[in-house]
Write a structure and sequence with these properties.
Protein name: Carbohydrate ABC transporter substrate-binding protein, CUT1 family
Shape: globular
Family: Belongs to the bacterial solute-binding protein 1 family.
Distance between the termini: 33 Å
CATH class of the largest domain: Alpha Beta
Keywords: Signal, Transport
Number of helices: 18
InterPro entries: Bact_solute-bd_prot1
CATH superfamily of the largest domain: Periplasmic binding protein-like II
Helix content: 25-40%
Strand content: 5-15%
Number of strands: 12
Number of domains: 2
């Protein structure tokens, strides 16, 4: 098992090892491969070629892409480039590499970058821009992003006031997994507010159940699921502006906002009446792998499990993941039914060349045309592109994720630990919250993480 510190992609890769269906999986599990984009077995749909004529005649030109998305998840990506190739006569050369996050920096600093890179973290984008090799996105790409994405997404592709990278794919972490059959048989309703979630949990306890199950074991990355829990509750209790300040350390890690968030998590995960259904007591959370943590839902031993969209890959074959299936998910609600904070991750397209063919392909990838073409080819992939038709998505979890991301009230925020310095986000934050779930108090936990922040 490969885990690269500080990477939301690596977390998905661990889960994705159980399934070939996730675009965000397996970047850590395959070899580097370099191919042209052609794949067999389907033909590209015709698209309107007009947007690409503005870049002139690019027939015979080649655009290189470097990414951590490797075989087999690369196949639908490469297939989705065919309409652009047919329109323009250009060729897209794709290179996937399990060591992408390290090697892309080395290549940029050495003056040998690709034309385009798919970057899974805003922090890595900032480091690439700091090399001086990244190029600002063309006006046509920026116009697409202004039209099809929210300001929150554009901000993550912006460094020092300059826009570099359009969003590509996305994942949603603000989900709670449950059994539709149990909810129907027991008369439970999907909660629409945090208060309703608490009431539901209490009702399940009254019915003789341990409603929640959880697990945070993940090798050297043990603890990361708790960071997601805390970030979700920080967003809900203190709002996105305070969250942004916290992530940037403009307010202390151990301030009142963070204290409220971790205590709110504790009201669920350190509550003996609520956890750990089918797995043990509160301390069993630390020793349960995150892959196994939600499986007791299938045996009616627990009812609720908070985990990201990619968790769908962990349910066994033969189990239906759907609204009327064996297991499904609902949005982790906000304080009110109208507030829609969304925690998640995603990828961004940054260029290191400004040739016409590169600009044209950047523009294609930022369009609703590409988002819909890609949606028809992939399972386990979604985008926050507002032009995406959810009906083009191929599985129920993808559709649910798209509905959440595309909700007009949604406010998206990137996984905070992935944007913090490694000493915090992929070290102290993981380790200290693990200590917290096994008995350490909130104050000491947050003080220790605050002390780890680089001076």
């Amino acid at each position: 098992m490969f885990v690269q510190r500080g990477s939301s992609r690596s977390r998905v890769a661990v889960a994705g090892a159980l399934s070939v269906g996730l675009v965000f999986g397996l970047s850590a599990c395959g070899d580097s491969s370099e191919t042209d984009s052609g794949t067999t077995g389907s033909s590209a749909a015709a698209i309107d070629c007009t947007p690409y004529t503005a870049f002139g005649d690019i027939k015979g030109k080649t655009v290189t892409i470097y990414t951590g998305i490797v075989t087999p998840e690369d196949a639908p990506h490469k297939e989705s480039y065919k309409p652009f190739e047919q329109c323009t006569g250009a060729t897209i050369k794709y290179e996937g590499d399990k060591a992408f996050e390290t090697q892309v920096l080395i290549r940029a600093e050495a003056g040998n970058p690709p034309d385009l890179a798919f970057v899974p973290q805003p922090g890595l984008l900032q480091r690439l821009v700091a090399t001086g090799k990244a190029k600002e996105a063309p006006a046509e790409t920026a116009a697409n992003v202004d039209k099809h994405f929210g300001k929150d997404w554009k901000a993550y592709g912006t460094v020092d006031g300059k826009f570099y990278a359009a969003p590509l794919g996305a994942n949603v972490k603000s989900l709670v997994w449950y059994s539709p059959k149990e909810f129907k048989d027991s008369g439970y309703a999907v909660p629409t507010t945090l208060a309703e979630l608490k009431t539901l949990s209490d009702k399940m306890v009254a019915d003789g159940k341990k409603p929640w199950c959880a697990g945070i074991a993940s090798g050297e990355a043990t603890g990361w699921p708790l960071t997601d829990w805390m970030e979700d509750f920080f967003l809900r209790l203190s709002g996105p502006e305070a969250y942004d300040k916290w992530v940037k350390h403009e307010i202390p890690f151990n301030g009142p906002e963070a204290t409220a968030a971790l205590d709110a998590v504790g009201a669920y995960l350190k509550n003996d009446a609520y956890v750990n259904g089918g797995l043990g007591d509160v301390k069993s959370i630390a020793g349960t792998t995150f892959q196994d943590a939600g499986l007791p839902i299938l045996d009616d031993q627990c009812s609720l499990h908070r985990q990201a969209s990619f968790y769908a890959a962990n349910f066994p074959k033969g189990k239906t993941v759907a609204e009327d299936g064996d297991v499904f998910a609902f949005y982790l609600p906000g304080e009110t039914a109208d507030s829609k904070p969304v925690l998640g991750g995603g990828e961004f397209v940054v260029a290191f060349a400004d040739r016409p063919e590169v600009k044209a392909f950047q523009t294609y990838l930022s369009s609703d045309t590409w988002a819909n073409a890609k949606a028809k080819l992939s399972s386990g992939w979604v985008s926050a592109n507002k032009g995406l038709d959810p009906n083009n998505l191929t599985n129920p979890v993808d559709k649910l994720s798209a509905e959440i991301l595309l909700d007009p009230n949604a406010t998206f925020r990137f996984d905070g630990s992935d944007m913090m310095p490694a000493a915090v986000g992929s070290n102290a934050f993981w380790k200290q919250t693990t200590n917290w779930i096994t008995g350490q108090d909130t104050k000491k936990t947050l003080d220790n993480i605050e002390s780890a922040w680089p001076k």
